[in-house]
């Protein structure tokens, strides 16, 4: 499969670019048999191969010529594949169908959900909307009664009732009720549900969404009170006159007010904000610190609360300060020091995608799948499901359940023209990484049924997608071309490479200089993390202790302790220690303590194996690979020569100066 993908990446997917290219030239670059290769064909293939039009148009003529040769060969192989009747090969057709399902599902989700979803989210996040709500909770599990009350309140609002008064009287959100329903400015990606967000962003300023929206807690009545361009983040400085500046102080509002008046007087006289803050400000976060926190960095409008956000985010110019803000801790003034503008789509695409996947995608996915199940008349066999649930084994997913054998060929669910039986379902269930090694329960079974049937509905759509989506059709056509050419290569080249011992031995004899061992060394090590420990082990060796015994008892490299510190035969260049061991003169010699990255080592030489040619047996695997490569190239050359004789291609290299001139 890897080789097939390689072929496709080299030449495939080219036609995808047809839809985004300008009208291409039909000048012929090559022809063979009854087939022409135009500038359009070549450009699409080449752009796909190098990655972008910008790269392609700047490439040298020699690169273009080399690729044209390869592309002509590719097209002749494809022609040969069609002559050989691969279109009717059942195995290849099954692979194409499986690929269409697999890639089609990803394609549908990306093209129909993710791409439009993140673009819509980006556009919405350019704006923020001030929202008021009335929340009617579902009480005593009575969702119906909550919806009924919400609808009656909407009727009252339509008849002129005050939203603010109804919010105070009826809203089950105490914070919103306290502020007459106002929950301040919000932006896309912050909402409690996708339905809530869609309602907010489909409502004009001053209007009420025409029906209640269900959220986790109950039903929301939504009013949009203001719309403004979004400021993603602002940077600000802060100063404060606290009622109780120090721990243990008795709160004194009057004293704090007088202090704030002094602050205002200095600011009016032109004293720098930071200097005034350094002189007067109380730091509520670090009351014992000698360095006051003045610069609070960047925040968005969800970080501070409406009391601070409202005046701060309405400041127009860098350097402007807010009016005095009073809360339960004291009096505050904020200074705007910077504003961030909305990044471009490309700059925040990854973050937008994260928000979309987390908050919006699940609802969009459910909506899409529900529509497809309805389109393809999804039906689940309730009797079969009931039997499976009644006979669930208490083991793990994938365990054999003999009772299921009774219904393994029974249809579990079906779509128009296709069905999935119990055996197929259990196979998918057992191979799904979301369920593997989980204990089987009725809830897990139902979750698996939903997931697998959802994916099956998407596969149904994928199977006909090439009829309505030209880009997907091009993708599938190029994959088909890729596997056909790979199949030709298998038949004409790979399967014709014959290997026997005599051929390999002869090949080895003529190329033996290509197979050699580098300098290698076999050595033992005593390792310690501390210099005092390694010195003590060195002293033991000096007193005549056996190296292997000391290594077995004391070395701190745990993976070698049971081997008496023996590293085995390794390439001298594989590590610094191997190089040091190779410097020792004769077997049995050991080094002084050596400092290395993780500690200290004493090395003992066991043996040296200087560089030398490999024997045939030692090199056999390498020889086999090299022989196959040489034979494959020879057979490839012969095959191309045969195709050239058969189709007599004519290549117009002079026309390459016409490519990449249309954009």
Write structural notes for this entry.
This protein has 663 residues and is of the alpha+beta class. Among the domains are: 103 residues, Chitinase A, domain 3 (Roll), CATH 3.10.50.40; 108 residues, Chitinase A, domain 3; 98 residues, Chitinase A, domain 3. Helices cover 49% and strands 17% of the residues. The protein is built from 23 helices and 20 strands. The strands form six sheets. It has a four-stranded antiparallel β-sheet with strand order 4-3-6-5, sandwiched between helices. A four-stranded antiparallel β-sheet has the order 8-7-10-9. Strands 16-15-18-17 form a four-stranded antiparallel β-sheet. Helix 4 packs across helix 23, helix 10 packs antiparallel against helix 11 and helix 18 crosses helix 23. The protein is extended, with a radius of gyration of 37 Å.
Count of helical segments?
23
Unreliable segments (pLDDT under 50, ≥5 consecutive)? 1-23
Structural class, judged by helices and strands? alpha+beta
The gross shape turns out to be extended
> From the 3D coordinates, which CATH architecture of the domain at 233-340 would you assign?
Roll
How much of the residues is beta strand, in percent?
15-25%
CATH topology of the domain at 233-340: Chitinase A, domain 3
**Number of DSSP-assigned strands:** 20
| CATH class category name of the domain at 233-340 | Alpha Beta
**Helical content, roughly?**
40-55%
Average predicted confidence as pLDDT: 91
Provide tags for this entry.
663 residues, alpha+beta, Chitinase A, domain 3, four-stranded antiparallel beta sheet, 23 helices, 17% strand, disordered N terminus
């Amino acid at each position: 499969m890897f080789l097939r993908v390689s072929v496709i990446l080299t030449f495939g997917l080219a036609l995808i670019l047809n839809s985004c290219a300008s009208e291409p030239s039909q000048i012929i670059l090559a022809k063979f048999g009854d087939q022409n290769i135009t500038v359009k064909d070549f450009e699409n293939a080449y752009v796909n191969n190098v990655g972008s039009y910008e790269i392609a148009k700047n490439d040298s003529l020699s690169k273009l010529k080399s690729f044209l040769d390869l592309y002509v060969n590719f097209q002749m192989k494809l022609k040969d594949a069609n002559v050989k009747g691969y279109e009717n090969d059942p195995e290849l057709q099954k692979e194409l169908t499986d690929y269409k399902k697999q890639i089609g599902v990803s394609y549908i989700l990306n093209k129909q959900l993710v791409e439009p979803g993140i673009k819509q989210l980006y556009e919405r996040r350019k704006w923020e909307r001030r929202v008021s709500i009335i929340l009617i909770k579902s009480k005593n599990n009575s969702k119906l009664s909550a919806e009924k009350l919400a609808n009656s309140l909407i009727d009252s609002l339509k008849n002129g009732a005050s939203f603010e008064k109804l919010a105070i009287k009826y809203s089950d959100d105490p914070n919103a009720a306290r502020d007459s329903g106002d929950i301040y400015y919000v932006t896309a990606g912050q909402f409690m549900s996708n339905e809530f967000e869609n309602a907010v962003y489909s409502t004009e300023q001053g209007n009420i969404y025409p029906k209640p929206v269900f959220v986790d807690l109950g039903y929301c009545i939504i009013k949009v009170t203001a719309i403004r361009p979004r400021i993603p983040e602002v940077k600000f400085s802060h100063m404060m006159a606290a009622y109780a500046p120090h721990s243990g102080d008795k709160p004194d509002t009057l004293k704090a007010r007088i202090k704030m008046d002094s602050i205002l007087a200095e600011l009016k006289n032109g004293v720098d904000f930071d200097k005034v803050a350094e002189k007067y400000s109380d730091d509520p976060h670090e009351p014992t610190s000698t360095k006051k926190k003045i610069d609070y960095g960047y925040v968005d409008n969800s970080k501070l609360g409406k009391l601070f956000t409202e005046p701060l985010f309405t400041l127009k110019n860098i350097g402007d300060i807010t009016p005095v803000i009073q809360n339960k801790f004291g009096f505050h003034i904020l200074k705007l020091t910077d504003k961030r503008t909305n990044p471009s789509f490309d700059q925040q695409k990854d973050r937008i995608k994260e928000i979309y996947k987390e908050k919006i995608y699940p609802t969009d996915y459910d909506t899409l799948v529900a529509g497809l199940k309805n389109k393809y008349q999804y039906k689940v066999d309730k009797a079969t499901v009931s039997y499976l649930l009644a006979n669930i084994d208490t083991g793990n997913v994938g365990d054999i359940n003999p009772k299921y054998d009774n219904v393994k060929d029974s249809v579990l669910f079906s779509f128009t023209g296709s069905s999935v039986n119990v055996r197929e379902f259990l196979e998918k269930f057992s191979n799904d990484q979301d369920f593997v090694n989980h204990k089987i329960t009725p809830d897990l079974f139902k979750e698996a049924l939903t997931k697998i049937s959802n994916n099956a509905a998407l596969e149904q759509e994928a199977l006909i997608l090439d009829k309505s989506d030209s880009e997907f059709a091009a993708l599938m056509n190029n994959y088909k071309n890729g596997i056909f050419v790979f199949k030709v290569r298998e038949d004409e080249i790979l399967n014709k490479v014959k290997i026997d011992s005599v051929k390999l031995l002869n090949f080895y004899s003529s190329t033996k200089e290509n197979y050699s061992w580098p300098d290698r060394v076999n050595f033992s090590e005593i390792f310690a993390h501390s210099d005092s420990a390694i010195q003590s082990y060195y002293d033991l060796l000096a007193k005549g202790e056996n190296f292997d015994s000391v290594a077995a008892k004391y070395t701190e490299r745990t993976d070698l302790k049971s081997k008496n510190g023996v590293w085995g035969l390794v390439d001298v260049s594989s590590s610094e220690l191997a190089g040091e061991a190779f410097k020792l003169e004769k077997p049995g010699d050991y080094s002084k303590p050596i400092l290395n990255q993780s500690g200290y080592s004493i090395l003992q030489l066991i043996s040296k194996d200087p560089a030398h040619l490999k024997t045939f047996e030692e090199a056999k695997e390498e020889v086999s690979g090299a022989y196959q490569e040489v034979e494959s190239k020879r057979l490839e050359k012969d095959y191309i020569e045969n195709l050239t004789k058969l189709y007599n291609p004519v290549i117009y290299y002079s026309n390459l100066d016409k490519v990449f001139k249309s954009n």
